[in-house]
# Entry
Amino acid sequence: MQPASRSSLRAAVVLEQCWHRVPGGTALAALRQVEAVTAAGGVDQVGVAARHGEPPRPAYRPSIPVRHLPVPRRLLYETWHRARFPKVERATGPVDVIHATGYAVPPRSAPLVATMHDLAWRHDPGNFTRNGVLFFEAGLSRVVADADLVLCPSLATLDDCVAAGVDKDRLRHVPWGMRVTDVDADEVARVRKAYGLSGRYVLFVGTVEPRKTLPRLLEAMAQLPQTDVTLAVVGPPGWGDALGPRADALGDRVKLVGFVPGGDLDPLYAGASVMCYPSLVEGYGLPVAEALGLGTPVVTSAGTATEELVSGGAGLAVDPTDPDAIAGALARVLDDDDLADRLRSAGRARAAETTWEATATMTIAAYRDAVDGA
# Structure
């Protein structure tokens, strides 16, 4: 293949995850990366997805045109991973590079760049469905065999990829960006009223699934000496044990908010006294990044990618399996206004230096290197 023009590159970007029942951080990261690359210029992006009768939910609608292959999702995933067809070009026309932004990896009909968000299922398969593990493993095997370059949002994921058999010279550390955002006080008051959050609250944002260790967070809330503090759980239901009985034991001190419109999320972060994200394994931790950019103090997990985000005093990292440790960190922030103010300032400073513009620059460089090396 001839190298693409330095001023023009056409990339097919897999965005099928936007139609998933629970799109999660994989879809949000891909969409924001697409927006950042669009803003940077020099790349003509076209999305690729399976056959669908309707667009995804508004929060997950891509900002670029999406071309659909003539097969439904399940069949597309099966044929991509097992038979290595159909080519994305059947929907997109000729492209210079293909970017698999999730775990569905199309055949390498052009230079292939893949994003590996995390390998969490390899740490504890029991936290995932059987079909989920099979799908992730199939995608990983195609990445190991076919990808020219593999983008990892954290050093933790990069290390996991090495352990899974990806050659180091094919790996790129491409952190996702953060945004420093200010929220109007009236907007904070509006969402407080809408979701019944009249006093101080701890915020969790994410899909409700086993590796997020929400039962441990509920135990920690039960131990908090500050009994006037509510836990707001924001995010779609996923899978695993229901939280209802544990949440019921705390009564009005827990609000299971569920999925919220995109315009409500920033004010919910901004109004929180502390954001807690005690996930066992993360590839990056978008909710932590969002909280940092909004100046919300963060308590998150040691030993995974989110510890990278809060290193250097940008947040507190604790053992996510230890309710006592989680409760202790939350109590410190809730009791110490000076500590909370330091965390707010440090979080916003971290977000200011971790931009989506930098993500776009590194992503485009990976596209060009994959094409030039083909």
About this structure: The radius of gyration is 21 Å. The longest helix spans residues 24-40. The chain has a mean pLDDT of 93.
